[in-house]
Structures are given as structure tokens and as C-alpha cells.
Amino acid sequence: MAAALWALLAGAAAYLFFFEPGRSGFFPLCPFRALTGFNCPGCGTARGLHQLLHGNALAAFELNPLLALLLPVLGYLLLSYTAYALAGRAMPRVVLPQKYVWVCSALVLGFWILRNTAVYPFPL
Prior knowledge:
Elements: H1 2-18, H2 31-36, H3 45-53, H4 57-63, H5 65-86, H6 98-114
Helix pairs in contact: 3-4, 4-5
């Protein structure tokens, strides 16, 4: 399963490297933005990953700071999953205390609201 996940990620990264979102290739529209005209917390992720794959970390951060902050966490989880899969063991179950879930939810909601105001410092 880990090999399939890595293959899927490699294929997606290759596609994203060669096709720029919004200019070429097939990239679905954000349903929230299509319906409301506002950005969701994930808007700019594909363009940010495209920039990151081309070595433009600052441009990726400007397109979606939440993505840039979460990538190290997602990378750690992927590497941990791979290590456990190669060892033939299941990943240990991690239960976050409820207060951390609420704090993370509040941060995402705050980012969602902030990025749709005039004070948001990054262009989209």
C-alpha cells in the first residue's frame, strides 16, 4: 500500500510539475469558490505545490501559507507510514486531546476568514 501511495504521489507531482494550474492541464475548480466567490483554506494549494516543485518556496507560501506550514507534518506522517509499512507493522494509533483539535480547527477557520478580507497580506 505504501508503494502505491508513493507511486500516486510521484505521478501527481510529475503532472503538477509539467502543467501549471490555471493555465494548462486538468485541474478541477474549487466548489466553494465557484459557489461563493470566496477562497477556501485550500485555494492556492495546487498553484503553491507547482511553485514549490519549481523551487519557489516563497511563492508557494504566498499562494497558501497554511499548505506551507502543514507540509512538514504531512511529510513526517508519510515517512512514518512508509517506515511502519516496510517493517510490516501497523502505525500506532494517536489520539489528539480534544483541545488540540479545537485549536487546529480555530486556526483553519481563522485563516479561512482572514484570507477573504482586505487585510490579508498575500495576493491570490
